[in-house]
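It would be a great kindness if you could assist me with a short task in structural biology. The matter concerns a single protein, recorded as an amino acid sequence and a row of backbone structure tokens. Could you please explain, in whatever detail you think fit, how the structure tokens follow from the sequence? Thank you for your consideration; the sequence and its tokens are set out here:
___
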Amino acid sequence: MGEGEEELKTKAEDHEVEIQERGEIFFLYRPKVEKQEVHSPDEVQRLYIILRPLSGEKTVEEKQCKDGGQSTHTQEVNIKKQPLLRFIIMGRKSLPHPSHRSRPYWGFVDMVTTNVQEIKIALQGEEYDTSTRGHRHISAARALGEGIYRILRHNPKNKNNNHTHLIYKLEFPAADEKNEPQKSFNIEREGSFVIQIKNPEQGGAGGSSSQHKRRAQFPAHLQGQFGHKRYCPADPPEFLNFEGCEFLLISASDDIEQELGLELFTEGEECDLVKTFGDAVSTKPLFEGTWV
């Protein structure tokens, strides 16, 4: 599928938009333990988002080294030559509803890798034994959606209202499919969210570090952007290249062109989610828009 294209409309000059990053976005869900089939979000354990940047202001991005997660050591990744994959877990198991524009939804970066196999392992099913409930089974993840995304600055010249957006547009499933699970997770055909990165050195609102194992360890030049603030814009998007990074999504619009003067265009008929992860996940929700 690739990163798609965007077109700035003539009215977009009034919106002051600067695109920082372009890429592919994948949505997946995992059933709860011992659930072989899912018919509603109540039977879902996790909603996953995978972001794969393909181009942007930087060809070479900085990511956290794989040395246990509690280190500011970094490595460089040329996103034109290597896949950079951000594996994200959404805390509420859905995206923000377009009508709930004052309600933040929390998420965190669980894994950042250039190794596709590591993501495949994270999506696979699992069996294990417990002392109280005996043998347990977790089903593999289900592919839910594929599209293109942008991370962009909005109102960059206005220091009092400068913020960043994560916007996306779906290509799969097709618009004429049922889209039942997609609607249940508030995954519309397109969406725009203000994205704010949480300062790991301050407590307070958010998902709380008790819900996951790691706290983000940003290098000094990224950590310094917070100052004494609890949140800052995702500028640069490299914040998302550090495991344990917590963020908030706040619904901005389900009409990107009207809000930002920007129209996204998907390209091609090839499904990259299947090409990349297909043997690790079920794809019926992706192509038919039905639960499985």
